[in-house]
Amino acid sequence: LRAGEEALCVFWEMTGTEGQWSTEGCTQVGGDTSHSVCSCNHFSTFAILVAVGEIPDYFALRVVTHVGMSVSLVCLFLAIVTFLLCRSLWSVSVALHLQLSICLFA
Q1: Nearest residue to 7 via CA among 54, 56, 47
Q2: The pTM is what?
Q3: Helix H or strand E encompassing 39
Q4: Strand order through the sheet with 18-22
Q5: CB 3.0 to 4.6 Å from 12: which of 8, 20, 45, 61, for a disulfide?
Q6: 77: DSSP letter
Q7: What dihedral angle (degrees, nearest 10) is formed by the CA atoms of 96, 72, 58, 4?
Q8: How far apart are CA 79 and CA 39, in angstroms?
Q9: Cα–Cα distance between 34 and 94 in angstroms, integer?
């Protein structure tokens, strides 16, 4: 483990039809920077998760995602309209591209 990282001993806990990792009944009893030793008081599916801290909120990434998605949807809409209005260019290839554009837009 590097500085600021913490190993968590966990198991997969099913709640109805959904599941999540839980630390209940599991503790880390030993280890060093390259190995961890866990002890749990039950049988299940186990793992060691490494928590590296809080995930930062990347404002720039969210902006680029929203702008990119908006531009993509506008371009796909224009492509669909173009394919539908240009019947003189109609062919199997154009029909396939129209269907692909509709699927991507949806």
Answers
A1: 47
A2: 0.47
A3: strand 36-40
A4: 18-22, 6-15, 46-51
A5: 45
A6: H
A7: 20
A8: 58
A9: 57
Q: Nearest Cα to 41, choosing from 26, 23, 22, 21? A: 26
DSSP SS3 for 106: coil
The residues spanned by each domain of the chain are 7-50, 59-104
Structure tokens at 12: 């997969």
Residue of higher predicted confidence among 70 and 4: 70
Measured CA to CA in angstroms, residue 101 lies from 69, 75, 104 at distances of: 14, 10, 5
Ramachandran category for residue 96: left, alpha or beta (phi over 0 → left; psi -120 to 50 → alpha): alpha
**Start-end of H helices in the chain:** 59-85, 92-105
pLDDT digits (tens, 9 = 90+) for 20-79: 888 888 888 888 777 888 888 888 777 877 766 665 677 888 899 999 999 999 999 999
